[in-house]
Each structure stands twice: as C-alpha cells, then as structure tokens.
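Students often ask what a holo structure prediction actually looks like on paper. The answer is less mysterious than it sounds. You provide the chain, you provide the ligand, and the output is a string of discrete structure tokens encoding the 3D arrangement of the protein together with heme C.
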Amino acid sequence: MVPALGLLKGIAVVGATLFIWYYFSPEYTEVGYQPKQPIDYSHKLHAGDLGIDCRYCHSSVENTAFAGIPSTQVCMNCHSMIGKDNPKLAPLYESWNTGKPIEWVRVHDLPDYAYFNHSLHIHAGVSCKSCHGDVSRMEKVTRKEALSMGWCLDCHRNPAPHLRPRSQVTNMNWEASPEDQRLAQSLVSSGKISPSLQCSACHR
Ligand code: HEC
Ligand code: HEC
Ligand code: HEC
Ligand code: HEC
Ligand code: HEC
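The corresponding structure tokens follow.
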C-alpha cells in the first residue's frame, strides 16, 4: 500500500511540474516571442523615427481580415534610392533582382479554428497598440500578448478602455482625454459597440 501511494504521489508531482512548465513556458504563451527575420528591419526606425504610418506597409488592415506584410516593391519605393551601399539591405536587393519574395517569419499566428478579423477591430476604434504593444518603439517585433481565448474575451467583456477615434488607431502616442473616455463608455452602454461572446463569432 504505502510504496504504491508513494509512487502515485511521485507521478502527481512530475505531472504537476510538466503542467506548470508547459503552460507557463514562453513556447506556450509565446509572450516575448521574437523570431529572427531575414532582414534586420526596424519598426523603431521606420514607424518611430521616420514616422511612416502603419498602413503604408500594412495596407489591408482597415479593409480585410489581414493586416498584410509589405512586398519588396513597397520597400523599394524608398530603397531604390536610399541605402544602396548598406550591407543590411543586401537581402532586399537580392529579392528585388531575383523576384523571390522575402520570407518574413510570422510573429502572431492563431490556430486555424479561431477566426480573427482586423478591419472589424479597426472600424470599432481599437488601436494596434492594444493588441501588439507600441510597435513604433520596437527594433524587432515582439509578441506582447498571449492571444489566448481568455485574452480576447477580457476585452470583449469590457472594450471601453480600448476604444478611440478611428483616425487615431495607428497613433502610438495618443492618450484618451476625459471626453474621449465618456464617448467610449457611451458607445458601449448604448450597445453601438458590443463585441460578441458567442462561440460562433470566433469559431465558425
Ligand atoms: C515600412 C514598412 C512598415 C511599416 C511602416 C510598419 N511595418 Fe509592421 N511590419 C513590416 C514588415 C516588413 C514586417 C515583417 C517583419 C517583422 O516582423 O519585423 C512587419 C511586421 C509587423 C508585425 C508582426 C506581424 C506578424 O508576423 O505577426 C506587426 C504586429 C506590425 N508589423 C505592426 C505594425 C504597426 C503597429 C505599425 C505602425 C506603428 C507598423 N507595423 C508599421 C513593415 C512595416
Ligand atoms: C518611406 C521610405 C522607406 C520605406 C518604405 C522603407 N524604408 Fe527602410 N529606410 C528608410 C530610411 C530613410 C532609412 C535610413 C537610411 C540611413 O540612415 O542611411 C532606412 C533604413 C533601412 C535599413 C537600414 C537600417 C540600418 O540600421 O542601417 C534597413 C535594413 C531597411 N531600411 C529595411 C527596409 C525594409 C525591409 C523595408 C520594407 C519592408 C523598408 N526599409 C521600407 C526609408 C524607408
Ligand atoms: C484586437 C486585436 C488586434 C488589433 C487591434 C490589431 N491586431 Fe494585428 N493581429 C492580431 C492577431 C490576433 C493577429 C494574428 C492573426 C491570425 O493569426 O490570424 C494579428 C496579426 C497581425 C499581422 C500579421 C499578418 C496578418 O495580417 O495576420 C500584422 C502585420 C498585424 N497584425 C498588424 C496590425 C496593425 C498594423 C494594426 C493596427 C492598424 C493591428 N495589427 C491591429 C490582433 C490585433
Ligand atoms: C482590445 C480589445 C479587443 C481584443 C483584445 C479583441 N477584440 Fe474582438 N472585438 C473588439 C471590438 C471593440 C469589436 C467590435 C464590436 C462591434 O463592432 O460591436 C470586436 C469584434 C470582434 C469580432 C466580430 C464579431 C463581433 O463581435 O461583432 C470577432 C470575430 C472578434 N472580435 C474576434 C476576436 C478574437 C478572435 C480576438 C482574440 C484573438 C479578439 N477579437 C480580441 C475588441 C477586441
Ligand atoms: C472572442 C473570440 C472567442 C470567443 C467568443 C470564443 N473563443 Fe474559443 N478560442 C478563441 C481563440 C483565439 C482560441 C485559440 C487560443 C490559443 O491559441 O491559445 C480559442 C480556443 C478555444 C478552444 C481550444 C482550447 C483552448 O482553450 O485553447 C476551445 C475548446 C474553445 N476555444 C471553445 C470555445 C467555446 C465553447 C466558446 C463559447 C462559449 C468560445 N470558444 C468562444 C477565441 C474565442
């Protein structure tokens, strides 16, 4: 009896340890995930210091489910003139000359059984910053949120603190005034903005 119990306890401890290791390790939550990219592209330089709007490169974010990753052509709008001799840009020119797209590594990727749509969030006035953090200060894009179901639902239950005028969704430095906060609250209490909690909204 006693040795068997001891064994069971042992298994329980190993199980609990594996459970904790699995659920709290970055591989699971993926917060902080920052893959190596084929080009040392900096959002801090382009979106921060140079002030290029997010939509210049992520041009489908307002109108489709996907934000989109810019093609080599978009980079070449500037880099056909700027940076010819910069070795950091060599892979860009190679892509341009060969016609082979750059293989950017995805930072955020939901499982296929979950449905997400950018344009619906942008139109409701949810900023990129609420879900991706202040990308304009990132040298390399880092995952800021777990993108778990609980995270989606937390905001769907209480969206008001995340709403702003649509014109400000890509402005990483925007702060809500008391008037903005009142407006956001009234959009939610009047039901004009009411994110779904139905399983079928996200699992179709
Ligand atoms: C000059 C072009 C350009 C601009 C401007 C730009 N981005 Fe990007 N963005 C890229 C490229 C290229 C990638 C893919 C490489 C990477 O992840 O760094 C990317 C990747 C991302 C990703 C990660 C996508 C994934 O794989 O999950 C996010 C999030 C993102 N951008 C948000 C923003 C936001 C927010 C802004 C505005 C503050 C912005 N970007 C401005 C070019 C741009
Ligand atoms: C609107 C103009 C513009 C666009 C579009 C643009 N860049 Fe740039 N990029 C610049 C400028 C300006 C610099 C700074 C050049 C310098 O300091 O010599 C720069 C610098 C760079 C550098 C060098 C950074 C360093 O530390 O030396 C890389 C790499 C780069 N860009 C990649 C990209 C990629 C990849 C894209 C497309 C996703 C892109 N850029 C799109 C304007 C642009
Ligand atoms: C409500 C949260 C939310 C907001 C707001 C949001 N994103 Fe995303 N973003 C996500 C999620 C979730 C994914 C992963 C989607 C997937 O895997 O299907 C993602 C993926 C991306 C990607 C990867 C390519 C793609 O299209 O899936 C880019 C680039 C991106 N977002 C940029 C932006 C930009 C730029 C903005 C603001 C204009 C923005 N996002 C606003 C949650 C958000
Ligand atoms: C920061 C707040 C926020 C986060 C995080 C968020 N959402 Fe939303 N979501 C909203 C708002 C606001 C709306 C718009 C509701 C409206 O227009 O009435 C919305 C709408 C939607 C819709 C359209 C159906 C509807 O409710 O009208 C889907 C689908 C959706 N979200 C999926 C997701 C998924 C999946 C995630 C997580 C990966 C997520 N959302 C994360 C705020 C958020
Ligand atoms: C606002 C969007 C949203 C709603 C509403 C939603 N889910 Fe999810 N769900 C997700 C996302 C996103 C994931 C993927 C999470 C991940 O990758 O960790 C997910 C994952 C799941 C999973 C996989 C296991 C897990 O927890 O990761 C199950 C099962 C599930 N959802 C069931 C449901 C049921 C049942 C409902 C209704 C009561 C529901 N979901 C409502 C967004 C949603």
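The radius of gyration is 22 Å.
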